[in-house]
Design brief:
With 311 residues, this protein is an all-alpha fold. It has 17 helices and no strands. The longest helix is centred in the last third of the chain and has 20 residues.
Length: 311
């Protein structure tokens, strides 16, 4: 049973904040009033707020807010914050200790799984995440890991199993759409419908959903439509910064909008835009690293066939 359904352990009172988080509406999560929530749901809601704060780039603020807090949920958030700051070794050690003591805790499973997978410790991440008791975010992360492993068959199996007991869940729809963009064919269109509805509905739009819509448009070969969605995402961020408001999207989501703009500009033959967006990406971004590696491979291959000048 979906714990965030009306019948689940958290009940319907967390459904709004839960969906807002997974739609990438981080400011809405931060603005959500949790004072009237039942005692059993307060910690879960606070964890979502802290994660939204971290996603928005306010890592120090999140850490300061739980400096004196005790318990596996908050310890996991502290480790995740350290990971987000680039203190990966410290974060891994903290997660290792938490796994030994509190591997049945849902927050430890989810944030620990993310940290371990980022460190390349895939089997440990999957082992931890597999301990979940009907947690759809754990299932979504497992699905992502299988896609990273190029095991689309396992990703499909994971989503299909979740669909049998949580068919109306937002997270299941999102995870199924991730798989759809890997499977291709008619699944591209199905994924597009999910992300377009999220992106173009005022109550659920965010940079994350707009970028997701643009990616499906790219797969469908609809380049002008993809460009419109990406421009909307990039403009949304500029407007929020210009008005001095906190961004509704995470810094990572903003970066992914730029990364996909690089891909789109390349496909559309817009060399100047491609180079401009590339300069906006931080040096360690996966796209930049991949391009640099391919450049080195190409140079090495070309060097073997350098023209010889007769003396």
């Amino acid at each position: 049973m979906d714990p965030f359904s009306a019948e689940g352990e958290h009940g319907a009172e967390l459904l709004t904040i839960h969906n807002a988080f997974h739609q990438g509406q981080y400011q809405a999560v931060l603005d959500f009033d949790i004072s009237s929530l039942s005692k059993s749901n307060i910690t879960t809601a606070r964890v979502l707020k802290l994660r939204a704060q971290i996603a928005n780039g306010d890592i120090q603020g999140a850490l300061a807010g739980i400096e004196k807090e005790k318990g596996p949920d908050f310890d996991a958030v502290k480790a995740f914050a350290q990971h987000s700051k680039g203190e990966t070794s410290t974060a891994e050690k903290e997660i290792e200790q938490l796994v030994k003591k509190s591997s049945e805790n849902a927050t430890v499973q989810i944030l620990g799984g993310i940290v371990l997978q980022a460190a390349g410790r895939t089997e440990e991440a999957l082992s931890l995440l597999s301990k979940h008791q009907g947690n759809l975010e754990a299932i979504a992360i497992i699905t992502q890991i299988h896609l990273q492993q190029n095991r689309t068959d396992l990703a499909l199996k994971e989503v299909a199993a979740a669909r049998t007991w949580a068919q109306d869940s937002l997270l299941v729809n999102i995870a199924e759409s991730w798989v759809g963009t890997r499977v291709g064919g008619e699944s591209y269109q199905s994924a597009f419908y999910v992300f377009e509805e999220m992106a173009q509905t005022p109550s659920s739009t965010s940079t994350k959903s707009l970028v997701s819509q643009a990616i499906t448009e790219l797969h469908l070969g609809r380049l002008p439509e993809a460009e419109a969605a990406l421009n909307q995402a990039l403009q949304q961020q500029k407007n929020e910064e210009g008005e001095g408001r906190s961004s509704s999207s995470s810094k990572d989501d903003d970066v992914e909008a730029v990364a996909n703009a690089v891909v789109l500009a390349t496909l559309m033959g817009k060399r100047e835009e491609q180079e401009r967006y590339l300069k906006e990406l931080r040096k360690g971004h996966a796209l930049v690293v991949d391009l640099e590696e391919k450049g080195r491979v190409f140079d090495a291959a070309a060097g073997k066939y350098a023209a010889k000048v007769a003396s």
